[in-house]
Amino acid sequence: MNWLKGTIIDRNNQNLIKGGKEVAFNDMRGYMKYLREKDLLLDVDIELNVARETTELQPLMRHLHNQDGPALMLNNLSGYNTKDIPVLFNPYGTRQRTAMILGEDDPLKAKLKHAEILTDQSKWLKPKLIDASKASCKENKIEKKDIDIGKQLPHVWFGKEGPAYITNAVVITKDPETGIPNTGCYRLTQLWNASHPHGEVYSEEEQKSCLSIFAFWNPPGNHIGLHWAKAQEMGKPLEIAIACMVDPVIQIAGATSIPFGLDEMDFAGGLRGEAIEVVDCETVDIQVPANSEWVIEGQFLPKRDVTIGPHSNPIGYYDDAQLFPLIEVDCITHRNDPLWYSTMEMEPPFDHNYMACLPIEGELLSDLQSKIPEVEDVVVTPNLSYFVQLSVDGAQKPHPEFGKFVLHAVWGASGRWGRTAKVVVVVGPDVNPYDLNEVEWAIQTRVQPFSDTIINKSGQAFLMDPSAPKDPGHGIALQSEQIGIDATVKVFERFHTYPEYSNANAEDVAAIAEKLKDIL
Fold first, then answer.
1. Full-prediction pTM beyond 0.70?
2. Are residues 181 and 77 both part of a single domain?
3. Mind listing the pLDDT tens digit for each residue in 238-271?
4. Which of 32, 184, 257, 403 would you label with 354, given CA atoms 20 to 30 Å apart?
5. Does a cis peptide bond (omega within 30 degrees of 0) precede residue 289?
């Protein structure tokens, strides 16, 4: 499967032959306008069902990803509680559309930009605080006494999931000790009209004014979980702001595992090239992106965990039941004629796979290139296999077993993701890491299974991996075995020469395609 259909690969340096573009928007509506201008966002007025147990959205997602389909605006939904609010669907469904968030059409250029800004904190920009009267997210306000989530927040169901999940938000909390904000992409559970995994019923209070959040806090598995764990130890409440449908560059920054204690909003400003405009919340001491479609304010409820599920996870399995903290909503603000974006996780690929992959690739590329200049590219597949492409191979490698050196560097990288890489493959410059067929070819023709692999029996697990042993509390995986495959040419490890690579030159392929375009 070639993830970059129609894109020419220059086999001399593996750069994609396309031109970058300036970022042309600063909120979700601007990104949507940009997609429309490219004919990458289409309106759908056909009625679609989004109700629990009968929803049509999971098969729609699979259909779109079977053919690299466009983003859709769903304007006619049944089984839906907020008829006047259309739902954006599949906006990030290709590598190209995700690259466009950073002003590029070329995925490699986008991740190189991400890696460059991530490495150089002098390019980060502090947010710019603006007056509430100029913030579009303040156009409408729902006070605590009037909150009824089942009437005011859209609820969209996917597959066999029990609750409707908020899947379009960045979540902002502050470290209870330092006051430094964390901005992360965390899924939230809406309890209104939700089925309970154990057959119980959520209380009227929970359905009307509470949310639950994927905060892994016991033990802390993400930064918001660490904030909540700290707050509980200190006997403090933890305030939270949930900004829905923000400028997607903020989501890219929020999905990047920058070191704890740094502010992702500063990194987002660096990626955008200008400070992110923020505004003070109404009821909590937090600042949020001023152009958010929705802002939900509240606080964690002490000793009020709640069981939720099923939840469809990003590697394609349902989590039957999970225990997460409960949040009480104190205020909701939103723009005039607000929009909603909804998505799900399922067997990859799906909509926000590529938005998740880009920051993983960027942070690992940044780390590896700072130590190993021969690293050319890092590609993370929707199934979370890691392919590292080198600019050298064979006799040009700095030393024998250089591929294995790179494998260890991946597992020892800074950031959250490299150390969780379950399958890592290192290839040379003549192998296109975006094409699984070529990676498989390199493994078949350049690897001896015992000599050229590394098995790590004590790696860190991806939290949702169903094959790894589970923590009994929150049901997450903490430790995993890992495999690294050195698929470089084994000169001089085993051979003095290697057979010449046989394939057509990419430019010649493009030329013959142009010559026969009226026939083929």
1. yes
2. no
3. 999 999 999 999 999 999 989 899 999 999 999 9
4. 403
5. no
